[in-house]
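explain this chain.
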Amino acid sequence: MTVAVIALAAAGCGKSSSDSAGDTSSSGKYNGKGIGLAYDIGGKGDQSFNDAAFAGFEKAEKDFGIGGRDIEPADNETDADKVQRLDELAKAGYNPIIGVGFVYAPAVKEVAAKYPKITFGVIDDNEVKADNVVDMVFAAEQSSYLAGVAAASATKKDHIGFIGGVDVPLIHTFEAGFDQGAKSVNPKVKIESQYLTQTAQEGGFSSPDKGKAAAQGQIDAGADVIYHAAGLSGQGVIEAAATAKVWAIGVDSDQYAQDALAKYKDYILGSALKNVGGAVYDLVKSVHEGKPETGVVNGTLKTGGVGFADTNPKYKAMTKVVAAVEKAKQDIIDGKVTVNTK
């Protein structure tokens, strides 16, 4: 989907921590200030993870007639900076407040304890346990398995690649699913693998130049389909693939449909999707209706929480590839295939 720029609501003078910010009225309907959204590294405009969250934020604003404020991350910020950001949103009366990315888990845990009447969400983490916290997690290994099936079915060289943004357990799940899916098609397929950085602070999720260089290296080695799980850095991966006229596979959002990537879209085979926008929207809806979600919300192929985008007509024309991906999807849903997370 195309993500538009919206006008952000001002925070106003805010409320103290003793105020019941974001309470529902006696009718059970929401009377809070709006949605608070705090972005992960790369920020809005990554055409991927953060933009998927923003799409849900924007749709909820429109559908429910409520305001919202979204805040960009700072370079080299600490957990204390994230705590301050969430605390600012809570004092201002936003409800729910959502941290986009597992890096927000410690901050959500700390701030949610101070504001028990506000619902907090954290994406890609299931470790924060509180009545007013929703852990939104996704079976990224399942959508990555489909990406692996697509890559191994589309390659002409039996040689494909994976590029992860940061060498952390979450991104390992993407690689594990991708490798397993590819090898289900061809056990002898050659898979290049690279992580851009060891830590997020080094720019693994926010450096298109790093993604471009890594992809070029894999292309030079012979890979003709490259899947990235690298956030904003993935734009460089896609650029390198398009320049070399090989396939790229996007992540999180349908990257074929992103305006900023339009000149490369003919070489975007598909994208491994996480319905982050849908999870954000559903959380806002639950709070708006006075019945806030709580606990862990799992997005899987079966629930529609993950998937594989097929909007590229060139992909749709590859009927054998499409059939292989669809069969793999059904096998996972039916429990015939269990996808690795490591």
